[in-house]
Design a protein that fits this description.
Elements (H helix, E strand, L loop, with lengths): L11 E7 L8 E7 L17 H14 L2 E7 L1 H7 L1 H15 L6 E5 L11 E4 L7 H22 L7 H4 L5 H10 L31
Parallel strand pairs: 1-4, 4-5
Antiparallel strand pairs: 1-2, 2-3
């Protein structure tokens, strides 16, 4: 059973990202503010939900959420600042796009860079614990999947329609045959059967939960 809130008296936004470990494409993030009576029996971590149910959940979330937004950071920016910073930047951009600023943030994962002095709580596997984070994971995942499926039309030989840019055996074989394109993350040092992320050094500020 997902928790509705951490602070029920505050305007609380859940945040999550999608595509952090992919070989190609942007990293997406979503921020979602839910009403107190929000409930859907199938809402869960997007990785635990079949694709067709994700689409159903996305429509339900967008209709019933008090506020939501989705943002992304390009693969070129990922290469420039590294994937961890890019993931945080995507979350910040999503938060900035909300119609009204939240008073508290629930962040999926162990670390986060504070946004505009808004207090936050980092929750490991939060998309399976809090409804707002789970909703954010659904939006980030479905928006990113659609983005990669559109890119597939331009680069069908990588089969991004199915693998969404993740490092599947098929995707790695396509890279070996065709090389990297403009949408791949060159800083990931993609080699046959291997992936190394050059994350660089990062100073983390947890903020004040």
């Amino acid at each position: 059973m997902l928790k509705a809130f951490h602070h029920p008296s505050l305007r609380e936004a859940g945040c999550d990202e999608a595509g952090r470990g992919c070989y190609a494409g942007p990293v997406f993030a979503a921020a979602v503010v839910l009403p107190g009576d929000f409930y859907h029996p199938l809402l869960n971590d997007s990785k635990q939900v079949p694709p067709e149910i994700r689409i159903e959940l996305r429509a339900f979330i967008e209709i019933h959420a008090l506020d939501f937004s989705v943002a992304h950071v390009s693969n070129q920016e990922i290469d420039r600042i590294n994937i961890l910073r890019a993931s945080f930047k995507a979350m910040h951009l999503a938060l900035k796009k909300l119609k009204d600023p939240p008073e508290f943030l629930l962040i999926d994962g162990p670390i986060f860079t504070a946004y505009k002095k808004i207090p936050h709580l980092c929750v490991i596997r939060g998309d399976g614990k809090y409804a707002s984070i789970a909703a954010a994971s659904i939006l980030a995942k479905t928006y990113r999947d659609e983005f990669m499926q559109r890119l597939h039309k331009e680069f069908p030989h990588y089969n991004w329609y199915d693998n969404k840019g993740y490092g599947t055996p098929e995707h790695r074989r396509s890279i070996e045959e065709h090389g990297l394109c403009a949408h791949h993350r060159h800083s990931f040092h993609i080699l046959p059967g291997q992936l190394t992320v050059d994350s660089g050094e990062l100073s983390i500020n947890h903020g004040d939960p």
